[in-house]
Write a structure and sequence with these properties.
This is AEC family transporter. The protein is mainly alpha-helical and about 300 residues long. It has 15 helices and no strands. The protein has one domain: Up-down Bundle (Na+/H+ antiporter like fold). Helix content is about 80%, strand content about 0%. The longest helix is centred in the middle third of the chain and has 29 residues.
């Protein structure tokens, strides 16, 4: 896992240095993100979903993880109300505190800690616990910021316009068929999927900004405490009380629940006109903290 974290650090640092040296601008960054979201990640989702071994235990783990993550967001909402924080700050904290960077950051760490079999499960986990719920809540968050109206039509359009969701559906349909696709046909897809992680981490590095941390460090620490401490602590308590010990499937869930806020949630917050500085600083600082916090959480198991 330490080697995986080292690789993550290197790719993010390369992206951040490229930004500082102005080797990559907004135009190049947009091209990278377009390639990532429309080609590399869908290929990774399709390949991982088709080859993943799924059972009821996995979906139960997803459900428990989702409830723990959402509970972390609700706790942050309550804390924000108690301290009488601004409305935009409370919404930003509770929304971003409920969804972690389970794919871009969680996938390579799980792959390094538990192996490729669990990395394939992470791809489906990400859609169940992060991707689809964000697609449902994004129109609501945008409507709270006065940038649109909440409707089931908006939710449906957002889901079926997502290449990641469509790749997941196609893989599940083909997986249900009695005829298996030969592995040789997946070789180009696997090559394309292998570019997803380094490109995603590089793009995160390009988008990172440490300047806003100074201006919003108090709500940032509060948000990260709820997302990276309260939510995984809830999962640890549930697993120890109900199951007695951790197996590798629950360790995968713990890594994912302990992830910092996801980049896409921050993008939605910024688009809605909420607390943009908090969103940016939480993503940037959360990634740095995760390199220490995630190994510590795993030590408990």
């Amino acid at each position: 896992m330490l080697l995986a974290i080292y690789s993550v650090c290197v790719f993010i640092c390369i992206g951040y240095i490229a930004k500082l040296l102005r080797l990559v601008g907004n135009k190049q960054s947009g091209i990278l993100l377009g390639f990532l979201l429309n080609f590399a990640l869908p290929a990774q989702v399709f390949n991982g979903t088709y080859h993943a071994t799924l059972d009821l235990a996995f979906f139960y783990v997803c459900l428990v993880s989702f409830l723990c993550s959402i509970s972390g967001g609700l706790v942050l909402f309550i804390i924000g109300k108690i301290f009488k924080l601004e409305r935009n700050t409370i919404i930003t904290m509770s929304f971003m505190g409920a969804f972690g960077n389970t794919l871009f950051l969680g996938l390579p760490i799980v792959n390094g800690a538990l192996g490729e079999a669990y990395a394939n499960k992470v791809i489906i986990y990400d859609q169940i616990v992060t991707g689809i719920p964000i697609a449902f809540l994004a129109p609501l968050i945008l409507s709270l910021g006065g940038k649109g109206s909440f409707s089931f039509k908006a939710i449906g359009m957002r889901l079926f316009q997502s290449p990641l969701f469509l790749a997941l559906l196609c893989a599940l349909v083909l997986k249900a068929l009695p005829v298996r696709i030969p592995d040789e046909l997946f070789l180009p897809l696997k090559s394309l999927a292998q570019t997803a992680t380094p490109v995603a981490l590089f793009a995160i590095g390009v988008q990172m900004s440490l300047e806003n941390i100074k201006q919003a460090w108090k709500p940032t620490l509060l948000l990260l405490f709820g997302k990276m401490c309260i939510a995984p602590l809830l999962l640890v308590v549930v697993v120890l009380m109900c199951f007695g010990s951790f197996n590798d499937l629950w360790r995968m869930a713990l890594i994912e629940v302990a992830m910092p806020p996801v980049v896409s949630a921050g993008a939605i917050v910024i688009r809605a006109g909420l607390n943009a500085k908090l969103a940016v600083s939480a993503v940037a600082f959360g990634i740095l903290i995760s390199f220490i916090s995630v190994p510590l959480w795993l030590l408990l198991t």
